[in-house]
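Preliminary data (for renewal application), zinc ion complex.
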Amino acid sequence: MMTCPVCGFDESRLAKSLRFGCSACYTTFTAHIATFLPRLHRGVIHTGKQPPALTVAELERRIDRLVAKVQELAPGSPEATGLCQLQSSCHAAFDGNQRQNHPA
Ligand SMILES: [Zn+2]
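Predicted structure:
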């Protein structure tokens, strides 16, 4: 089990909370993050080259997938709740944006 030498945060807490204990965790868990991030944020966070600009619809799909995944991994957690709120905000913003750019 990998543990942050600075704050004592460990892999299981990281996987559960999807948060770091301190700034040193970022470097401590880099290798570990690489193993679970693609699974968790599949297609959402890219560790390599930036993808071409996403369409609004694609962004919405990715946010939906991310929210579903976080709710599956950490149901009822503050992260899941926060993401749901973010999801609602994004959908609202995207809706307004789409109407502006592509009037029906
Ligand atoms: Zn730490």
